[in-house]
Design brief:
single chain; 456 residues; 22 helices; globular
């Protein structure tokens, strides 16, 4: 029965997350990139400068840099390791190229999300800001589109349940313990215990609110990305002769027509689909976090927001891909997820699988912290303030459940709910593109020179 339900769910997810999601995310992102005048390419310097000048505020307002750290904490998770491994198994090295394309396009999408998050955010009675696609739709689009706001909120409540993170972290932990102490790695009860530990740790951080989330993320993100970077640098240095071929295989397989146009399109879709789970561009969750920024200038927030895809889908995913291509095995037709990456690191670095497990734990936990905030905001919109507290308890309990479900079902659920969030979000961004263009032109307009005339 479970296998049958898993197959049905996977079939639905494969359809929705195939051509429809590819057209919406990549096609819509390319359209926004062109309409905005390629802001991510022309304004990268301005975006980096904004990181240095951002400051936090009162009333649970965080800085733009903290908002970016929290968003990156959410997006740098299992998708950057297990997701990349799955993409390589399903689509080969060429899928990584299309993840890069999705990252570049996603920078434009995230820019629009950041601008609109500040422009159309809401304030409660205590003056605390909050927002996201549901509030952008509610405040900026005609009333007949209100159902899209509710639809996003409901999909967001389910899509932010950390299905993939809980599942893969439990799998990695059990595998590491099984190899160290030689016992059955299929123990569902042990996965449940690991789920309980995860739920307890997340609860401690979640009850502190957005300020605590941002403070924890601003510490964890540089540490985990830096540690992971040096691990991959070691792998590259010890396999330097094979690096050119690894990059060549990415470009060669990205445009390979040996299996026909259908296979080429399939590889592109796989790369875009996995990237959607990595950088969240066009999904709408980032605007929920950026709306809490102390920044009052929409364009400045948009500039900071667009750096997210460059960090996760561009930088971190490339590190994972290189490590697996240099030392891993992607020939198996089975989706082993994190096992592929852990085997690659174990073979390249002494104790590499345990080091990777430590990094993965940081990745997964940081994602859970931010996703709990996303889910609670969606529940607050859909259910109201009081009932949303019950949702938070359900969210915490779900970590235990998803630690024990099969990987195939977890991947299908993740993809499906992300798609249901992406459709209303991308529709809204495209509908409001003119407002973003006007804000951009106003912000970057040359300042008029004041003529000073000498008095006679």
């Amino acid at each position: 029965m479970v296998d049958k339900l898993t197959d049905i769910l996977t079939s639905i997810a494969d359809f929705v997350c195939g051509y429809p999601l590819f057209i919406v995310l990549i096609g819509g992102g390319i359209f926004l990139m062109a309409y905005s005048g390629a802001v991510p390419l022309r304004r990268m310097g301005a975006a980096l400068r904004e990181l240095r000048r951002s400051k936090s505020g009162d009333n649970d307002q965080i800085s733009s840099a903290q908002a970016l750290a929290s968003v990156v904490a959410a997006t740098i998770g299992m998708g950057n390791i297990a997701g990349v491994a799955i993409a390589l198994v399903m689509g080969g090295p060429g899928a990584i190229f299309w993840m890069w394309v999705s990252a570049l396009v996603g920078m434009s999408t995230k820019y629009h999300e950041g601008v609109l998050a500040i422009k159309y955010r809401h304030f409660d009675r205590q003056g605390r800001p909050f927002g996201g696609p549901m509030w952008i739709i509610r405040k900026a689009l005609p009333r007949r589109f209100r159902h899209l706001a509710t639809g996003f909120a409901v999909a967001g409540m389910m899509g932010t349940l950390c299905i993939m993170n809980a599942n893969q972290l439990a799998e990695a932990s059990v595998s590491a313990m099984a190899s160290a102490w030689a016992f059955d790695s299929d123990s569902i009860w042990l996965r449940g215990v690991i789920g309980l530990v995860m739920a307890s740790l997340v609860w401690i951080v979640v009850i502190g609110g957005v300020k605590r989330l941002a403070n924890v993320a601003s510490v964890m993100v540089p540490f985990m990305v830096g540690t992971y970077f040096f691990m991959v640098v070691y792998i590259i240095a010890t396999h330097i002769d094979n690096v050119p071929e690894a990059f060549a295989s990415i470009f060669r397989e990205a445009f390979s027509l040996r299996a026909g146009w259908g296979a080429l399109i399939g590889v592109a879709i796989i790369g875009a689909r996995r990237a959607a789970l990595v950088n969240d561009a066009g999904v709408g969750t980032a605007s929920i976090m950026h709306s809490t920024s102390a920044n009052r200038e929409p364009v400045r927030e948009g500039l900071v927001a667009m750096l997210g895809p460059a960090i996760d889908s561009g930088f971190v995913c490339t590190l994972t891909a290189l490590a697996i291509l240099l030392c891993g095995d992607i020939s198996s037709p089975d989706l082993k997820g994190l096992d592929i990456a852990m085997n690659a690191f174990a073979g390249a670095i002494p104790g590499g699988n345990y080091l990777l497990l430590a990094v993965v734990t940081c990745f997964a936990m940081s994602s859970m912290f931010s996703y709990s905030f996303y889910g609670s905001r969606c529940a607050r919109y859909a259910l109201g303030e009081r009932k949303s507290r019950w949702y938070t308890r359900f969210w915490i309990a779900s970590l235990v459940i998803f630690a024990m479900v099969p990987l195939k079902a977890a991947v299908g659920l993740c993809d499906l709910f992300y798609a249901l969030m992406a459709f209303p979000t991308m529709f809204t961004l495209i509908m409001l593109r003119r407002q973003v263009k006007e804000e951009t032109d106003r912000y970057f307009a040359p300042q008029p020179k004041i003529a000073i005339t000498a008095t006679q």
